[in-house]
Amino acid sequence: MARIFSGIQPTGIAHLGNYLGAIQNWAALQEGNESIYCLVDLHAITVWQEPDALRAQTRTNAALLIACGIDPVHSILFHQSAVHAHARLAWIFNCVARFGWLGRMTQFKDKAGKDRENVSTGLFVYPNLMAADILTYHATEVPVGEDQSQHLELANDIAQKFNHDYGIAFFPTITPRIIGTTARIMSLRDGTKKMSKSDASDQSRINLTDDADTIAQKIRRAKTDPEPLPESAENLDGRPEARNLVGIYAALADARVADVLRDHGGQGFGTFKERLTELIVAKITPIGAEAARLAADPGTIERILQDGAARAAAIAEPIVREAERIVGLLPAR
Ligand code: TYM
Fold first, then answer.
1. Which of 194, 218, 273, 283 is catalytic?
2. pLDDT tens digit sequence for 267-276
3. Which end of the chain is more exposed for a tag (fewer CB within 10 A), N or C?
């Protein structure tokens, strides 16, 4: 039995990329493991959020995770800000991680762009908080999409430097759990960009709350090229949009890309998109409906998260107190 930790930012609404790249794996890994899943609201505010919208989206995304099969009785499901141990350990990690390491993070470089003078300092130290999220539980397995792998390498560097600096094997090594085939679902408008909550165009993603008509319309408008679908996977090279749609199809049909192309190769995108829409609608709309039912009772969602936070804190508190002792801080009462 392993201790699993993962998190999702409650900005916007979880989408098909989050589902295929991470959440479906979170659900599967519950069986036989101790699983801790977190809505990382402190990470969300590294970029300004409208406060009421952030609260509402934290509840909505919690409802979506439950609707995706995260069982809040078996797993621990909570919001990050409610367990203070994360921020305390993140501070210690701010003092362990090196400035140069953080400057090399590609996600920081992408998000900060050219205007580095004007991004929050929270955005710069974002990966330190992420390392703290995981290590405050001594979690060892972290199911994520491919875009998080650099951050997890950094978390291991931080853990190793802490252990080395204080001469104690205190933090374990983290193993990323990345599902190769769905680790990077791309935008529906541009097959070279990942599907993202922060893309300005809602047409670029399928939100887990989208209804059947919206899904059909987004897939109909999804960018493709003029060629028919190829008969073999090698011929998807240089065709990022086709590769993405076929990959989504394969993931939802639980089939191999080669099998999908055997069945659909030679077809134009019209018929293929209709079949793809059916698959997405069948998977996503029940999740949206269940989440809407749960979200109609915001008090219950908040209580679930608060109960989760109390259970999370019971694990985190002794570990972070020990980290504080190791670095030389006097005990709190
Ligand atoms: P976030 O909120 O961007 O995404 C949540 C999870 O979804 C995966 N993901 C994708 N997978 C495939 N294709 C995509 N287009 C796609 N977009 C997102 C992400 O890889 C992630 O697994 N920094 C994290 C949240 C976090 C965290 C943590 C994760 C904070 N602390 C500790 C693991 C452990 C993030 O912004 O994820």
1. 194
2. 999 999 999 9
3. C
